[in-house]
DNA sequence: TTGTACGCGTTATCAG
DNA sequence: CTGATAACGCGTACAA
C-alpha cells in the first residue's frame, strides 16, 4: 500500500496525499479534499513506508531505550512501557536494547536503527555519547557521565540516588560505607557516578574513598567474594548497592556467611524493585517517582526532534528520591 | 559516507562497490578491483545506509525480540544477549520490545522496524502471528499458541516446562495442583499453553481442570489474593507458576499468611531465575538449557532470511527441561 | 489549489 | 566481464 495508490483512490496526486497526511503547513487544501484523502487512506489501510521516509528525511522515528543487561525488573519495565506510550502519541516509537554496548555493537545499532533519540536507564560513558552524536542522534537522555553534558544531552538522577543512600546510612550512624556493583567486563558509567555521589556525602564524615565490591552473579561466588571483601575492609559497616537486585544478593550471601544484617552490615539498595520485599530482611532502598519523569523525557525528545535548534535543559533533577527504610538498615 | 563516494575513491562504479561488499554471487570481478574497493571502504569508514537498503530490498535486517512486559531476569537477559551476538555474526541485528503488544502498538512496530524475524520469549496469540505474517515477517520463533504452527513459524518449549512441573509435583505426591500467573489485562498465550500442559499430566491422576490464580504484582494484593484462592480451592496442595518471579511472590505471600511451604503448599517455578536462591525456602524450578537453543534460532532465522523457500522445522523440542528441586517442594 | 519531477542510497537489470 | 541506469516510496520545491 503506497501513497500513490491512495492518491489514485482519492483522485488526487501523491503530493496532495503527503500534504494532507503530514499536515504540511503552508498548503491550502480544501477540507473536502482532505477528508477524501484521509478516508481513502483509512479505507485502504495505508501505512507509510518507514524506510522510504527515513531515507528521504534523513532520520528515523525510532528512539532507542538502553536497558541494563543484567536483567530488568518490573520497575524498569513499567517505565519503558510508559515511555513507549508517551512517545507513541508523539509519533515516535521505542525499541529496547541491552546496555552497556561495546563499540562494535553500538555502531551496528546506530547503523541499522539510526535512532533519533536515546534514553538510557544506565549511565553512558563519554565515548558512547560522542559516538551517538556523531551518528546524528538528536537527543540523549541518560544518567551519569564523566564530563559536562553536551547541549543535546540531558542527564537525570546523576547523584540523587547515591546522595540519598549515603545520607540514610549516615543517619543510621555509619561512618565507613562501601559500594556493591555487579562484576562485569566493562565498567559502567552509572557505577562511577554513584561512587562519586556517595563519596561527596561521606567526605563530610571523613571518609576519603569508597571501597567497591564487584559481586559475581553466581550465588556461590558472590558469597565468597563478599566474605573476602568484608575481611579486607573491616571498617565498612554498611554498603550501598547499585540496585535492589544486587542488594538482594548481598543480603542472602550475608545470611549464608553468618553475617548479621543490618547489625554487622547494613544494606541499602536502589529503585525499589519487587525483590525488596521478597528477601529477609526486607531491603531498604531509595525510590524516586521516575514515572513522572518519563512524560517529560518524551516531551523533550519530541521537541528536539521537531525543532533541531531549540535549547534543551542539560539536566533534570530527580527531586523525589526518597528512602524506603525496611529491615536491611 | 555513501557508496558512490567509495566508488569514486576506488575508481569504480557504485554498482561494483555493491557487488564487492555484498559478495554478490555470479559476478566475476578481479581480485585486484575487489581489494581496491574494500580498502577504500575501510579507509573511508563506509557504513551502508540501512534505510536505503531496506527500501530497495523490501525488508530490514532487524529481528525483534519480544520480552515479557512484566520485567525479566538476568536469565532472559543473557539469552537475548547471546541471540544478539549470534545474529550479529549473520548480519542481522536484534532489538527488544515488551510483549504482549496490543494491535495498535504491534502495527506501529511492524511499520517502523519492519522486522525480518521475531523471536518471542513469550507465547504469541494467533492474531499476532497472523499480523506478523501479513506484514512480511519471514520467520517467527515463539513458545505456545493455540492453533497449529504455520510453515514459517517455529515453536519451542510449548509443553515441556509444564510437563516437567506437573510430573515433579506428582512425584511429590500431589494430586490436585493449580497454576499461578501474573494478573494482567490481556491473557497471555504462554499462560494458556502452560495450563494445557499441566492438565495433560494431571489428567492421569484424575484432575479434570487446572485452577488458576491471577496474582497481582503488589505484595499486599498478592497476599490477599492468595489467601482467598487457597480457601476457595482447598483441594489444591501445590502450584506451578509461570516463572520464578511469580513463584517468589507466592512463597513470600504464603509466609506472611502463615501458610507453610512446602507442607501446606508446594511451589514450583520455571526458568531458574536468580531470585530462586534469594527467597526462603529456596525455589524449586524447572530449567532448560535455552542458551543452547539460541544458536539454533539464529541459524534458522538466517536460513529463512537468506532463502525464502527453504522449509523450516515447525517445532523445536526443549529436551533438556529438568527439575531443580530446592526447598519449596 | 494541485500536480510534476527530483533526489535520498542502495541493489538489480540489462546493455555494452 | 563491467558499469550505466532504473526503481524502491516518500517529501518537497517549483511549475501549472
Explain this structure to me?
The structure is a homodimer of 329-residue chains. Chain A is an alpha/beta fold and 329 residues long. Chain A has 12 helices and 12 strands. The first copy, chain A, has helices spanning 3-10, 14-22, 31-44, 50-57, 74-89, 103-113, 126-134, 160-171, 189-202, 219-232, 244-257, 290-306; strands spanning 62-68, 93-99, 117-120, 139-142, 153-156, 177-182, 212-215, 238-241, 266-268, 285-287, 315-316, 322-324. The first copy, chain A, has a 6-stranded parallel beta sheet with strand order 2-1-3-4-5-11, with helices on both faces. Chain A has a 4-stranded parallel beta sheet with strand order 7-6-8-9, with helices on both faces. The longest helix of chain A is centred in the C-terminal third of the chain and has 17 residues, at 290-306. The radius of gyration of chain A is 24 Å and the shape is elongated. The first copy, chain A, starts with a helix and ends in a 5-residue tail after the last strand. Chain A binds a DNA duplex (16 and 16 nucleotides) through helix 2 and helix 4. Chains A, B: It holds the Pfam family Peripla_BP_3. Chains A, B: Residues 1-57 form the HTH lacI-type domain.
| Strand elements of chain A, count | 12
Relative strand content of chain A = 15-25%
Describe the oligomeric state of these chains in a short phrase.
homodimer
The largest sheet of chain A, given as strand count, sense and whether it forms a barrel, is: 6 strands, parallel
- Averaging pLDDT over every residue of chain A, what do you get? 91
Q: Mind telling me the CATH superfamily name of the largest domain in chain A? A: Response regulator
- Assign the CATH class of the largest domain in chain A: Alpha Beta
Taking pLDDT < 50 over at least 5 consecutive residues as the criterion, the unreliable ranges of chain A are: none
Helix content of chain A: 40-55%
Keywords (chains A, B): DNA-binding, Transcription, Transcription regulation
Protein name (chains A, B): DNA-binding transcriptional regulator, LacI/PurR family
GO molecular function (chains A, B): DNA-binding transcription factor activity; transcription cis-regulatory region binding
InterPro entries (chains A, B): HTH_LacI, LacI/GalR-like_sensor, Lambda_DNA-bd_dom_sf, Peripla_BP_I
